[in-house]
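Q: Okay, next protein. This is Flavin-containing monooxygenase 1 from Smithornis capensis. I've checked the sequence twice, so it should be correct. Can you predict the 3D structure?
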Amino acid sequence: MVLRVAVIGAGPGGLASVKCCLDEGLEPTCFERSQDIGGVWRYTDSVNDRRVSVYRSVITNTSKEMSCFSDFPFPEDFPSYLPHSLLLEYFRMYARQFDLLRHIRFQVSRDPKHHGEESHQQLIPSGTGQPQVPSHKAHLPALCLGIDTRFKGQYLHSQEYKDVEAFRGKRVLVVGIGNTGGDLAVELSHVAAKVFLSARSNTWVTSRVSSHGFPVDMVSTTRFQHFLSWLLPSALTRRIKFQKLNSWFNHANYGLASTKSSKFKIIINEELPFCLLSGTVVLKPSVKEFTEDSAVFEDGTSEANIDVVLFATGYVFPFPFLEESVRSLFDDNRSLYKCVFPPLEKPTLAIIGLIQLTGSIMVGAELQARWVTGVFAGWNKLPPPSRMMAEVLKKKPPVERNPSERENLKMSFIGYTDEIAACAGVKPSVLRLLLTDPRLALAVFFGPCTPYQYRLVGRGAWRGARGAILTQWQRTLQPLRTRVVEDDSHGSSRWPWMCLLALPMALTAGFLLSKHPRPGWGPAQGL
């Protein structure tokens, strides 16, 4: 008997889930509220259809090689960082390649169980990078400290933001300094009379471009660096990280972050430091309260004549389509086994993409879907509910129940993806590769941990994975070859010697990590 699976949402997590179901011989039906695929990445000007979509100018924070589906690289001519239009085009290519659209029902506004579709399992993609309808809800803190009763100006959540036109010539306060808050403050500074950015936490700012011009995630997210983080004391790795971040500019001078703080977040924004330096954005502490036309801050200062307050304060995930008896089992991903499974007696429900990683959430979501569909198909096994609950309680950290603090819950990208890959039986072995394919092993260990690594072995192995890994830098540089100049560097001639020197270290790291794996939990790492 073929098991039927209901997939809620046709964003990137939903598309990956449908494909994984088909790979495992399951029968998926995807229910999508809107008329098209793409989830939040399908931009729309409308804010009245209860959909969350990206704003017009958004660019991805993770590069194409680090964010693609593991058996479907981005086209070579696509830039490393993508606008929403190209990312949506890529999703369409993926859906066509694997014939996914015929399994999707569009414009479904009711719970699937009311459509007479009794599915044996449910996959609930909750987002890949940002929340997806119907499982999101904008978070407005403490109903905004009197803003609803006293403030006479306009206030809105970033969910409603599309472009700058409505803010031209106005004095704007942006509350929240995550990636979205930083982006919107910079963008608004080009047209607004003044922009204030309120931050409640220590925030480190980095760039998408590394010191040598490559995508920063391809340079920093490597198994070698992950091994060093595992090997060295956490206090030392944090100190090294802070020094590296401060090498761009001193964050304490800008009021952004202190090296003495144990709680912090890292955001990606190339323009914010210049905006602060030029005064087009003014950084302020946390808001204490609002008056009719002013904001009063925790340090006692205030800013008058505020026209608009824009909250970039995150989302909560109520899952209104689930019954209360199921919803009560988890309040966020920390209540889920491996951030995926509620501890039910039968594994018939999985939440895909409700994670915060130091790398691409799309990659983590696809790995989750591969593991989950293997469980549904009977290839992968889960421990008893009591053991799952024990692990959940053991790993659940004591943190504030505030969506704006979720940056502190970011898990190591490689730590988490390796953990899920091991559950799915698709984690690559560096030691085995060193014995069978040394060139590939060195690329896997010292090169970027691209998604193709999880297609080298196990169920769903892809013949093209090796070639994709060995040509990933070519695809990264190809879009830049619009004007070619001579390069007199001799870095390539040093590569064989570097490989020889690195071989003993790769052997040692592969052995130690196989014997003593480090869990994927912890504050932001690897940037």
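A: Here is a summary of the prediction. The chain has a mean pLDDT of 86. The radius of gyration is 23 Å.
Q: Noted. On to the next one.
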